[in-house]
Amino acid sequence: MLDVAEAARASVATVSAVINGTAGVSPELTQRIETAIRDIGYKRNAIARSLKLGTTRIIGLTVADITNPFFTDVVSVVQEVLHRAGYGVMLCCNDEDVETQDEQIKLLLDRMVDGLIIAPAGDDANLKRILSGTSIPVVLIDRVCDGVDTDAVVLDNQRAVFDATTYMLELGHRRIGYISGSLDTSTGRDRLAGYHQALEAAGLPADDALMRLGNFREADAYNAAMQLLTLPDRPTALFSANNLMVIGVMKAIRDIGLSCPEDVSVACFDDFPWADVFRPQLTTVAQPVRAIGEQAAQIVLDRLAGRLADAPPRRLTLQGRLVVRSSCRPL
Amino acid sequence: MLDVAEAARASVATVSAVINGTAGVSPELTQRIETAIRDIGYKRNAIARSLKLGTTRIIGLTVADITNPFFTDVVSVVQEVLHRAGYGVMLCCNDEDVETQDEQIKLLLDRMVDGLIIAPAGDDANLKRILSGTSIPVVLIDRVCDGVDTDAVVLDNQRAVFDATTYMLELGHRRIGYISGSLDTSTGRDRLAGYHQALEAAGLPADDALMRLGNFREADAYNAAMQLLTLPDRPTALFSANNLMVIGVMKAIRDIGLSCPEDVSVACFDDFPWADVFRPQLTTVAQPVRAIGEQAAQIVLDRLAGRLADAPPRRLTLQGRLVVRSSCRPL
DNA sequence: TCAGCTAATCTAAACGTTTCGAATAAGTCA
DNA sequence: TGACTTATTCGAAACGTTTAGATTAGCTGA
């Protein structure tokens, strides 16, 4: 910038004014400065600017697993919205590990991000403390976290699983196996609650033997499904609490020599773009991924623009949608 | 830091020395400063540090489509490796649009990233110019770009498609439809070349009517497959040049009332984690995604550490692997 | 003519670090 | 004792911006 100033026989202050369109600068000088900028190929240094302004125009984004299509879709939308608003996105993923998550959030805060969107991995006792020092907008997506009282956009998980389970019950299934996500997450707990609620509403007792922990991972779900399918009185249907796990479930079904939906019906949380071209065509609970991402990004932007000023934390709850295909058969 | 210095009755210089372990500071003073840091809850400002040091410890990463499982896997690995080395990752995706890509790269450079990993969308005439100003390490992945002479890690696309096509030929297929990616990309061109090469090796003429442009997108591939499948003498096999497009291909097959592999055999580029549990179990060309991500990240780290000093640009070419499943039947 | 105004431009401080060289104190040796 | 070392510690400049306030010049109108 000093170079530009010298070349244009002006001061750095005036150059700055021209670049930012701040003060009135005479047409001739503006002209001179602009050509100097072009000649020299000057680019303003965003770091110095950030230091002075106290704002980086970067939003931190942490998700548990960027390999998971659900998170991917959300990240993609968040990215799009924030980019359009002139913000950059710093992405971290932590492989569902709370410790790395903490590490990464600290790093993001050190790097002075202007806002934070977090899809928390599990219940994080430290999260509250880590965030307590800062005053930047934070929004939780997908999962909420005990004691962390910030904006959040989540799904009505219980309701969604209630609907899916009820659908299976209506098909006549009575022994419905449930492959649960980690109960350290709000989603894991809420989804399980929906399953229990549906059983109860149908007047069925909850049989603990039919519930297995899959921890949102394919491998764990495979083992869980294996256990359920080798039960003396095996379930006629299985529900998987997320997308990754249903792959494990299908692998177990295949390996045990059964087929879906003939021998065992399957439904799961989270939809796939390819779900209606491969067989079995999975019946799923589709999340409104675009809406989740858009809302989360928008809340951050609103907070940053001071639009929500000091409104209390908002908790947005969106609804899932049961997409019935052909992986569940009537009993 | 000034606060810490005052609290510890020391100078900022000494505080800095303690934090960075730079100079010898007496045990007592070190002690005093460390407790002051803890008491005050001081965090060093990474922005100011970056300004002074001229390094941000952030690597920019742009990919065409973060929704594509291939890119997702690569991003995930890159992320992991760089994080472990203490670098943050700024992610951009541009939806296969060259203009937004340019925009984003400029933004990343303005933000003073220390390095750049680019999976370029299409041939980008401006990329060379945009990158010309900088001296940071740049590595291209997946695709290369005319005139952009930097490190790159790519796949031997031609060979991979040659293998896949040859496999189909060996099954007896003679009319193999090819759904191509955009020919504005090196991958699009190289893969098509592999197809042609295989036909030629088998002594078959290349029939232009059997090649359609799918532009790496599901919708375009759907239309392309529709055209091929309604040809008077329709192909007995289809090859899709990437993962997204094969979904469109399968949709077309379904909508036209055919089935795979009975009526038409299908193979595609890029593997899916679920490919062997849903039917048809797709025969695919699997890319070594982990290796690609690791190598790309490692090259950036090596360059940054000065290990590769001023070695000429390295072009790493990895090999794909044909994973034979059951979506192609012998004719 | 000159006080008072406006418009254009500039000077210099600030943002929070790092680091070079200087200053101080303490110890060593002739 | 005084010159020389060594170990600590510090002052101040620098990184590249932004911006408040100062300065200057040119007008206006009494």
Description:
Two copies of one chain form a homodimer. Chain A is of the alpha/beta class. Helix content of chain A is about 45%, strand content about 15%. Chain A has twelve helices and twelve strands. Chain A has helices at about 1-5, 10-20, 25-40, 45-55, 70-85, 100-110, 125-130, 155-170, 185-200, 220-230, 245-255, 290-305; strands at about 60-65, 90-95, 115-120, 140, 150-155, 175-180, 210-215, 235-240, 265-270, 285, 315-320, 320-325. A six-stranded parallel beta sheet of chain A has the order 2-1-3-4-5-11, with helices on both faces. In chain A, strand 6 (about 175-180), helix 9 (about 185-200) and strand 7 (about 210-215) form a beta-alpha-beta unit. The longest helix of chain A has 16 residues, at about 70-85. The relative contact order of chain A is 0.12. The model of chain A has no long low-confidence stretch (mean pLDDT about 95).
In short:
Chain A is of the alpha/beta class.
Blueprint (SSEs and pairs):
The structure is a homodimer of 331-residue chains.
Chain A: H1 2-7, H2 12-20, H3 27-40, H4 46-53, E1 58-63, H5 69-84, E2 88-93, H6 98-110, E3 115-118, H7 127-132, E4 138-141, E5 151-155, H8 157-170, E6 176-180, H9 186-201, E7 211-213, H10 218-229, E8 237-240, H11 243-255, E9 265-269, E10 283-286, H12 289-304, E11 315-318, E12 321-323
Parallel strand pairs in A: 1-2, 1-3, 3-4, 4-5, 5-11, 6-7, 6-8, 8-9, 9-10
Antiparallel strand pairs in A: 10-12
Chain A binds a DNA duplex (30 and 30 nucleotides) through α2 and α4.
